[in-house]
């Protein structure tokens, strides 16, 4: 049997993650002879995508202590932080604090917020009720996909800003972004919040 290279190991970890088998993903990670950033990210993502947020954050903290050469340590990229932010969005106040620190890391390192990382930030702030922050990140994004728009709409509706969510939806339509099923779920919640239950079918 040919020796596995790092890419093969990483692919196996990602495969276990997609099937919800976090235990096997972690076993693969622990058995790896060498690990790169993708290895750490894939395993952190396995935890985060399966609701094991504390374990994911613990592994992230371990990752940033890994020394590469001399005084240089392994640094996360936007994909790593994006996977963690997805978990932070579901962790309440503790997740918000950690998520804000990750946003600060991105600013400190002068990262240009791409659509994937930006959407994760918008989703995290919106779900935690920090809609002003969500809007600031959203406005900074050069490219905005349906996921980013929907995160803003759903976050607004979730925290009682139904009318604002409907305004966001109108802007979304004007720029030609097609809504998805989750968008419509958020809009229904927005109609309820705005007292527009009867008008909902016409708005949608």
Automatic annotation (TrEMBL):
Pfam families: PPR, PPR_2
UniProt KW Repeat keyword: yes
UniProt keyword annotations, A-Z: Repeat
Gene3D superfamilies reported in the protein's UniProt record: Tetratricopeptide repeat domain (1.25.40.10)
PPR repeat residue intervals: 5-39, 145-179
Keyword Repeat: yes
PANTHER family for the chain: PENTATRICOPEPTIDE REPEAT-CONTAINING PROTEIN
Protein name from the UniProt record: Pentatricopeptide repeat-containing protein
Organism of origin: Forsythia ovata
């Amino acid at each position: 049997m040919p020796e596995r290279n790092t890419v093969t190991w990483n692919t196996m970890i990602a495969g276990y993650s997609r099937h919800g088998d976090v235990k096997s993903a972690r076993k693969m990670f622990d058995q790896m002879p060498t690990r790169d950033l993708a290895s750490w990210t894939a395993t952190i993502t396995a935890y985060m995508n399966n609701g094991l947020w504390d374990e994911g954050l613990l592994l992230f903290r371990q990752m940033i202590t890994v020394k590469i050469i001399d005084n240089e340590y392994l640094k996360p990229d936007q994909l790593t932080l994006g996977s963690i932010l997805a978990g932070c969005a579901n962790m309440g106040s503790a997740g918000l604090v950690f998520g804000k620190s990750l946003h600060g890391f991105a600013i400190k390192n002068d990262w240009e917020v791409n659509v994937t990382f930006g959407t994760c930030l918008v989703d995290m702030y919106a779900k935690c009720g920090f809609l002003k922050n969500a809007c600031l990140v959203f406005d900074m994004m050069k490219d905005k996909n349906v996921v980013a728009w929907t995160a803003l709409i759903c976050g607004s509706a979730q925290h009682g800003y139904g009318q604002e969510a409907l305004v966001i939806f109108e802007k979304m339509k004007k720029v030609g972004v097609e809504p998805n099923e989750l968008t419509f779920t958020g809009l229904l919640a927005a109609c309820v919040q705005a007292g527009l239950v009867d008008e909902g079918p016409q708005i949608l």
